[in-house]
Design goal:
The protein has seven helices and six strands. By secondary structure, it is an alpha/beta fold.
Length: 205
């Protein structure tokens, strides 16, 4: 693409051999095929405190905010715990806000140990994304039976499911490009500058 974009993937799991991490990596590969710069944000490597609504946070909170702020697209990955997304991801999101998510494209990836997948967790994340004024794309990937879904090399056994992850990464990149391209910016500026009723006032006859 003419304008290089950055797509980050947030791994909402602290597990050493995290299936969520594997899935987010694959999704980022899809973004990279379109020329996007990608970064895996592994929350296991961050020293984050619990969000208390204050402003005096340690350096790693600001490091996380800076990493997400630098991106035009975000892939959120989570395991499903008790029909919801992970607490570590919720806390990381709570430590951020509109500055990091507002107006950006977001793709969702969930994994679950059960056959039903991570649909409930993804529905919760979709609501959070909407409240952060992000554009959560319609496509999402839910991986059930996660303990048996991956090969030893971290690839998915189901090639169609792996391709869906690649496609999610590509879709986030494509929509981020459309949203941030010069053409889109020019259109928005023209739309914002247009008179409230360019057709003029209508009078009753």
């Amino acid at each position: 693409m003419a304008e290089q974009l950055k797509i980050v993937g947030l791994v909402g799991s602290l597990r050493a051999d995290s299936h969520t991490r594997k899935a987010v990596k694959i999704a980022l590969e899809g973004a990279a095929t379109l020329g996007a710069e990608t970064e895996l944000i592994d929350l296991k490597t961050y020293n984050l405190v619990f969000c208390d609504g204050g402003s005096d946070y340690p350096a790693d909170v600001h490091r996380l905010r800076a990493a997400v702020s630098s991106a035009q697209g975000i892939i959120l990955g989570t395991p499903e715990y008790h029909a919801g997304f992970s607490g570590v991801l919720k806390n990381a999101i709570d430590l951020m806000g509109f500055a990091q998510f507002g107006g950006k494209m977001v793709g969702l990836v969930g994994v679950s140990g059960g056959k039903m997948g991570a649909v409930n967790a993804l529905n919760g994340l979709r609501t959070v994304g909407r409240n952060l004024h992000a554009w959560v794309i319609p496509e999402q990937v839910s991986i059930g039976d996660a303990d048996d879904a991956f090969n030893d090399d971290g690839r998915l056994k189901n090639q169609a499911l792996e391709e869906r992850l690649h496609d999610l990464g590509r879709k986030v990149t494509q929509f981020a490009y459309l949203h941030t391209s010069k053409g889109a910016r020019d259109f928005l500026e023209a739309w914002q500058a247009a008179p409230a009723n360019p057709g003029g006032e209508q009078t009753a006859t």
